[in-house]
Every structure is written in structure tokens, then in C-alpha cells.
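Lab meeting, action items carried over

1. Structure of the two-component assembly. Owner: GW. Status: complete.
Input record:
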Amino acid sequence: MRIKLSFLFLGLMLIFIKSADCGGLSQARSLFYQGNTHYSEEKFQQAIVDYEKALSLGYESGPVYYNLGNAYFKQGKLGKAILNYLRAQRLMPQDADLKSNLDYARSLIKGGIAAAKEKRLTRIFFRVVDSFSLDTFTLLSSILYFILSALVISFILVKNLRKILAYISVPMSVLLLICIFLFFAQFYKTVIQQEAVVTVEAADAKFEPFEAATTFFTLNEGENVFIVTSRKDWVKIARIDGKQGWVRTKDIEPL
Amino acid sequence: MAKNKFFKNFGFWFVFLIFEFWILNLSCFAREINFEAKVDRKKVSLGGSIQLNLTFYGTQGIPAPELTEIDGFQCHYLGPSTMMSIVNGQVSSSITHMYRLIPLKVGIFKVGPLSFEYKADTYTSKAITIEVIEGPVAEKQRVQIPDTSQEELKDRVFLVIEPEKRKAYLNELIPLTIKLYVNRLAIRDIQYPEFEHTGFSIGEFDKPRQYKEVLGGILYDVIEFKTSIFATRAGESILGPARLKCNLIVRKQRRRPSPFFDDFFGEDIFDDFFGRYEVYPLNLSSAKIPFTVLALPDEGKPEDFSGALGDFSLSLDAEPKEVKVGDPITLKMAITGEGNFNTVTIPKLESQQGFKVYEPQVKQEKGVKIFEQILMPRTATIKEIPQVSFSFFNPEREMYQTVTKGPIPIKVAKPEREEKLKIVELPQVTAKPFKKEVLGRDIIYIKDSPGKLKPKGRFLYKNKLFISIQALPLLVIISALVFQKRKQRLETDIRYARRLRASRKVKKNLARVRQLIDSGEPDKFFDAVFKTMQEYLGDKFQLPSGSITADVVEQLRFENVGEETLSKLRDCFDNCDMARYAQSDITSKQMLKTFNLLKDIINELERSRI
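Predicted assembly:
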């Protein structure tokens, strides 16, 4: 009897935890719709508050970042807009609207964007990597791994089909390796590499991390940089063209 | 019989020649234009139709006359048909405009006399009477030449197709002749020949030529149709057969034979003069000609070769030779010679630097193709019009040839005033330039749905369930490997297979033995115990089951079986032997003891992993 009661208690606890969890999710969802309403009424600042609140609940999705980016854009905050578009891109890399908005926002960056010195093959490679999210690469690799495992099992058990199975397994293995490689590339971009966007109108990148240091180059609002290292209030960043400098932490916001 | 003699009869030919001479002087083969209106039948039923042919002899250039309303008929123009006739070696051409007359009511109607004016001449036909009846009209039997006569005809009227050669290069112009041979026959309404020409492009026929030719000792009147062809695909082809439609004029068979004149002239001379002549349609067909079309060789092909075939020469001229910057110069390039002018394209100017070059104008006449190109010098530094080259394949020499002409020296003066170079475009129909549309640009509107909201930083690769699932295929692979290995061992290692079998079998046997205790049959019980031990030990220690007795205990000592187990084994065998051979009263207690003994032995042996 005591055991039964314990199970009942545990079950109720689980339901409670689950419902608490769902509560956050539904709140985030309702804040999103509220933000949309404000946006449609051209109350962009209120829309920003709603979207930011939704995100502060610990949930995220491509459309939330996309809409937040739009709201910032309408408020004239190009850096914040690009930052949120880039965040959205990680979750929905193939969205055409997002791509269009990001391109347009980037085209408005004062002084343009420093061009990366990339070779054609590298550009193609990064285009492939950027086309899919980390989860997509994870799932694709997993599917290929399951298929290959099924082939290996068949290879062990069915002697007659070994030749055909071997022929199929080779391209499947190559595909799996490519997919795993792309997964790690995206993993590096998403998890390891720290990308940030300049959120102030102009940020001076200095040779050394203090105010009096000489300015090496100036970053414009909306430019994205990679964080190399940080020191107190200063962050060492690398621009797309490879140039590095120290900027104030408050001038940039990581993705 | 009379028809069989038709062509051999001297009397007939005598009368026929006189008749032809008479006709010739009368109308239809005269040099001046004659006009004749004919209908295909004079009696027609309501709902049917008749064909009205308006034929102009001696010309092929008269347009279709416009027919005014014909009483009782509705009239539709069907089209023209040009024909030729050869009678007595005389050739004449004609054009027939055909009309369909559809009767509108019953009665007897007169068509004509029809009268037309053309180039100040008036042509008038005789009136034709047509009867329109309500019921059906008895169909006139179609005239056909008997087979026997047709055989004879083959030698006297036939068609020959003759290309100048039977092997030629792709696009090479080949003269082709189609000849109609006629030997002492009256043929009229000769249409232009047609022939099968798959894989060939054909030109128009020249005006037919007429002459006489002796072939196999027989004099023929020949009508020669000439054209030129060129092959459009390489390989083996068939040319022909050529086909030609015409009408043969023969005398109608007489109605009443006259023995007197038959004897003297062969046939009734009066019937020839005053009887009617029948027209037999002939469809002549020539033999097929096999033809080989050679592809152009790749060897020695000049870079600027663009497919021209023949033997050509190039002449070059430029006018004027003294110009100012921006003034046009006409460069005239004339290609003359023999060959397929369809394949001749504009000769190549060595360099166009310093000139604005316009599209050339092309004129083609017989044996010459002229390209006139407007060049406009852009600077005063130009001293000459560069060299012009033209490459072609000469099928006679079987090689590529290139002819070059120029350069032509010219004087280009600076423009009088230093005004900007103004180049006058040639009037050309150009599309109205598309005005570039200015499109607005802004961000695209927000998303309506939040999509799949997920906790921040949660990735699939971090999901524990997902990671655990990834281990599954590995486990299955390991299991498959173990299974396969065991299967292989079972197939190859008999000792291992027997030992495995022993463990499985003994469990079943023990259950059976246990049942025998309750049944109270000691004989069967001890037999079963003995057999169980035999089978188990046989399988376990690779011994022949039948030979296992109490003596096996000594043997098993070497298999590392424990002394206690051996002692139990010996006891068990002894119990069995006693029960089977001593036949004393055996209680179920004794049986249970033996059973337990057996169970202990088996358990110990299973545990010992021998």
C-alpha cells in the first residue's frame, strides 16, 4: 500500500514538473503573439519587449529571433537587427525571408562589410555548412550511421549478398564521413567559435586593450566579428578579413 | 484482238499522223495561247459535283480567271495544274485552272461561253451543256489499258533518273536529270516529275528541254527535266524512284468492224478520222539509284571553313578608298565559281580592329554570291582594309582550299571638325530598350507562427535518449558477430556442438525419469536412468553412447572429473545394474535416491565446465 502511494506521489510530481514546463512554453508562445500584435500596430518598441521576454523564458526559435530582428530594424537598430537575424539563421538556415532581410540589413551597414579573402572552394564549403543547422547535420549523420549499420549487419549475416552490400557500403561510408565532417564544421561555428555583432554605431578596434591605445580600424554597426579572447572590459576580436583588434565588451554582443 | 494489234498496225499510224498534223494546225499545240473549257462529265445528279477545267495551252503564266455566276451551279476554285504535252515530238506547256461546280437545281444548264481577258487578249471557250438530274447517274467505266498493251508500253514510254555521279560529298551540288523517253506515241498533260529524295535537298526544275536520242537502235523523243540536288546527311542513300503523270492518247475502239478496210488499211480509216480519241492516264516510274554520300574529311580543315563546297574564286573591292573617320566604306566580296552556293557564307575579315562592322547584305545570282559589308573606320590611323580569306572544300580535288585577297590600301582622313565620332547606325528594326524598373526594397514582414520553440542551447547531439539510441546499432553488430561466430563453431566443432546438445537433452531426460518414479515401473525407471547417463556422458565426453557402462568411470578419471562425482557415478551405475539384473523388490524411495544421485552427477559435471 505504501509503495502504491509512493508511485502515486511520484506520478503527481512528474505531472507538476511537466505542467510547470509547459507553462513556460505557453507563456513564451503567448508573448510571441503579443509581440506580433504590437508589431502589426507599429508599436515596435513594445514588440521588442515582448519578444525579448519570450526569449528570457529560456525558449528560442527561428521565427522569434527573426521577428525580433525585424522590430529592431524598424527601430533603426541595425546591429541588434543583424544580431537577431544571425541567431535566427542558426535555427532556420534555409528561410528565404530571413536571407532577404539579412542581406538587406547588411547592405545598409555604413562603409560596407570587409570582404573575406576566401577561395572559391572554401566559399562553397561554407555555403553548404551554412545551409543546414547543427541538428540537421546531427540527424543526417545518425540516419546514415543507422543505414550503414544495417548494411554491416546484413553483411555479417547474409553471405550471398556480401558483394553487393560491400559496393553499397563504400559510398554510404563516404557520405557518412562527409556528413560527420560537416557536422563538426557546423559544431565549430555554432558552439566553439564565438561570433558577435557590433551593436553601437562605430566601435574602434585598438592595438591594445585600453582607451589610450591607437585605433587599428573602426567597426561599423552590424558588422560581425569573431571573439578571440577577452580581458576585463575588453574583447579581442577578429574581423572577417582576418584583422584583429581590441574593442570594448559593451560595443559588441555575442550571438 | 484489235487492241493487240493496236501499235503494230500500219494503217493506224498513217491515219494518226495525219490526224495529229490536223490537230497541230488547229489549236491546242499551236504556239499562240489557246483556251479550252472542259468538264469531266456532262450529266450529274443533284448533290454530286463536276469538275470544270479551264486550260490555257502554250503558257503556264495565266492566273486563275474569276468565274462570274454560273446559272444553276455553285462554283469553287480548286487550284492550278501545270502540264506539258508531247505529240509528234512537239512539246507544249499548259496551265489548267480547276473549279468544282455543285448543281443547285434539276434541269439542263449551259456553262459559258466563258470569256476572259488577260494582257489585252480575250479568250473565249465554247459553251458546255450540263444536265442535272435527280436520281443517280450511271458511272462511266474507267478506261484502262489492257495488261498486254501495258507491257508493250514499257518499252515505248519510260522514265529515267540520272544523277551526274553516284558518289558525292555532303552538300556537294550534283546535277540531276530526269528523262522521259517516248517512242512514236502521243503523250499529253505531262506533269513535272517528282522523286523520292530523303536525305537530299533539291532545287527547282529548269525549263524542260526536248530533243531526240537513239537508245538501243530506237529513236526516242526525250523530254529532259534538269535540277540539282545536294545531300544533307552522310552515308548510303537511295535516290528515286522518280514518278511522272501524263496522259496517253489512243484511238477509241471502233464500234463496227469493216472487213474491207481492215484488209487494206488494217483498221477503218473513217472511224479514225471521225471517231473519238480516248485519253489513258499513265503513271510512269523510274528505277531507284543507290547513292553514297561522303562526309567531309577532318584532315586539313581550315579554321575559317564554314561548310562551302565547290570550286570558287574570290574577288574583293572597296569603295570609296578615301574616306574620313566615321564614313562608310562598302567592301564588296564576290564569290564566283561552281558549287553549292547555299553553303557559301561570308568570307572572313582577318581583323576588324579599328572598324565598326555592320551586318552584310547578300545577293545571290547564278554562279555568283556577293556580300556587301559596310565598314566604318574609327580612327585616322587605319591604312588598309585587312586581308579577306574564304575557305571551301573542292570535291573535284578532294581537298580544302583557301583563297585570300587584299589587303586593300585606303586613306582615312581626320574629321574636319574635332567633333565626337558619330557613327550613324543603319536603319534596323530594334526592340524598344527595356526601361529598367526601379524596385523598392525593404525587409519582409514578420512570421505569424513562433515555429518549434525549444529550450535555448538544446541540441540534438546533447540529447541523452538520442545518444543511447546511437549505441543500438553497435550492440546489434556485436550480437550479429557473436551469433555468426557461434553458428560457425557449431558447424565446424562437433565436440562443442555435442556438448551443447548434452546439456539441453539431459534436462528433458531428467523430467522423463522423474515421471517414471511416480508411475511405479522400476524397470523402465532404471533403463531410463542408464540411458540418460549413457547419452549425457557420450555427448559431454565425446564417447560412443552405446559403449558406456560402469567401466567408463576409470576413463573419466583422466578428464579431470572430481573423485566425488566419479564415486556417485559408480554408485548410480551399480544401482542400475542391481535393479536390472538382481530383480529384487525396489521401492520408490530407492528410485528417488537414484534419481537424486543422477541429478547431482549432472549438476556437478555441468558446473565443473569440463
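2. GW to write a short summary for the group page. Key points so far: The radius of gyration of chain B is 56 Å. Chain B touches chain A through 30 residues (CB under 8 Å).
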